[in-house]
Design brief:
- The chain is an all-alpha fold and about 325 residues long.
- It contains 19 helices and no strands.
- It has one domain.
- The protein is globular, with a radius of gyration of 19 Å.
């Protein structure tokens, strides 16, 4: 059998076995709450972009072809497509021990300007591979020591999105994560809440308030990031969210600044992120992104806090 035919069959097999149906992103299918139909449609479109990017990576891992497809996605949702593609490539790396460098090559090539989203997508792959649940943080040592924490954020988002009853209602924490790993997991869980609660800014604060107070700050950080990156609501709703955050406003602002940096790095600025930063950070999206750059200078761990948390804390302090 010609090599090209074997390749095509293998890729079709991967998509058939590991692919995700677009139907999985529908609010009705997931049982997500929504109040505003426009917000629901917007967030479903983000989910569709992610799933399409993921499935495309499974059936076409020639990076030049995959990259062209991802860059054809609408600006506002392109980052989600790169996130999904990175999940697919990470999954293939694990399934094919003779070729385990797809994600690293993607990260240094087509995905380099989307490195925030690529690391988040890695977390989705870890969530889908049970053997890696036993050593989540150890698996990440081969990646950027700072941004690899975003993979645990993605791990948390996945669990909130697909298993909300366990992690958002029963408020479980994953096993085998370090104490700080659980905090980063909560940031991802907070991002998922933006989808699960349908960007309903009156419902989200109530959901967070049911958690132990020790977890609420990180949940708010994730909500701020999702509000500014995924969007789907107008200025009035964001103003309400800011008021509801109360003492956690610096955490929300830090999340929004992360979103601004991810957008700025990828060259995919959208007005929704700028509006969110104007309200949540009190500054433009570009200025918020610059604050994350300033905060990362001469960064190192401080005592029990890894460099990633020192970075977040510096950003929070800038907005306090």
């Amino acid at each position: 059998m010609p090599a090209t035919l074997r390749y095509a069959r293998r890729q079709r097999f991967y998509e058939a076995v590991f692919g995700i149906s677009i139907a999985e992103t529908a609010f009705d299918r997931r049982g997500f709450h929504f109040r505003d139909l426009n917000a629901r449609t917007h967030l479903e479109n983000a989910g569709c972009a992610f799933v399409n990017g993921y499935n495309h990576a499974l059936r076409e891992n020639r990076l030049e072809v995959l990259s062209r497809s991802l860059n054809d996605v609408e600006t506002e949702f392109r980052g989600f497509a790169f996130e999904g593609a990175s999940m697919g490539l990470a999954l293939l790396d694990h399934l094919t021990p003779w070729n385990t460098t797809r994600l690293q090559v993607f990260l240094s090539g087509p995905g380099r300007n989307h490195k925030y989203m690529v690391h988040v997508g890695l977390g989705w792959a870890i969530a889908r591979l049970p053997p890696l649940h036993l050593r989540v943080e150890r698996h990440l040592t081969q990646f950027d020591p700072l941004l690899s924490w975003l993979a645990i954020d993605g791990y948390g988002f996945h669990h909130g999105y697909f298993y909300g009853r366990h992690y958002l209602v029963k408020q479980r924490l994953p096993r085998r994560l370090s104490a700080y790993g659980c905090r980063v997991f909560d940031q991802g869980l907070g991002r998922s809440l933006w989808f699960v609660d349908g960007a309903d800014v009156e419902r989200i604060p109530t959901t967070i308030s049911a958690f132990d107070s020790s977890r609420q700050a990180d949940l708010w950080s994730g909500v701020g990031l999702a509000c500014a990156y995924a969007g789907g609501v107008g200025a009035d709703a964001i103003e309400f969210l800011k008021r509801a955050a109360d003492t956690y406003r610096p955490h929300v602002a830090q999340g929004a600044a992360f979103a601004a940096k991810a957008r700025q790095l990828s060259g995919l600025r959208v007005e929704g992120t700028n509006v969110a930063c104007q309200i949540l950070c009190g500054t433009s999206d570009l200025d918020a992104a610059e604050i994350t750059d300033f905060a990362i200078q001469q960064l190192q761990a401080e005592g029990k806090y890894p460099a990633y948390e020192v970075w977040r804390r510096r950003i929070r302090n800038a907005f306090a």
